[in-house]
Amino acid sequence: MAILKVNIVTPDGIVYNHQSKMVVAKTLDGEVGILPQHAPIIVPLSIDEVRIKRVDSENHEDAIAVNGGVMEVRDNVCTIIADSAERERDIDLDRAERAKSRAEKRIQEAHEKEDRDAVQRATVALNKAINRISVSKHRR
Hints:
The protein is of the alpha+beta class. The chain has two domains: 4-88, ATP Synthase, domain 1 (Sandwich), CATH 2.60.15.10; 92-136. 30% of the residues lie in helices and 45% in strands. Strands 1-2-4-5-6 form a five-stranded mixed β-barrel. It is elongated. Belongs to the ATPase epsilon chain family. Residues 4-85 form the ATP synthase F1 complex delta/epsilon subunit N-terminal domain. Its main location: membrane. It holds the Pfam family ATP-synt_DE.
C-alpha cells in the first residue's frame, strides 16, 4: 500500500510530519483530496482546516488550522508551507475566542470610519480566529 508523507512547515519550524492515507485541503478554487500517487501539483490554500487521515488507524484523523499558504504534492510527499498552522491539540480556545471578538470589533470600527483596507485586514483576522475555533473542536 502506498503512503503519503505529510509535512506542514511555518517560519517557526515543522508543525506536522506524519504518514497519511489521504489529505483534504481547501484551495482558492475549492476543496481537494490528495491520495498516494497523486499527480504533481502546487496550489494556493485558503484559510481553513487541513484534514489528514493517518495510516496508523482506520479512524485516526488529524485537523490542522492552516492560515493560507501553498501546498505542493510530488513523489508521495505533500508539503504545506504556511505563515501559521496549529494542530487541534495546540489551539488555545480562549485565546482564539478573544481574537475573534477583537476582530469583530475592529471590523465594526473600520466600517464606521469607511476604511476598506482596515475592514479587509480585520476580516482576515476574523477568518483565522474562526478557523482556529472550528479546528479546536476536533479534540478528542
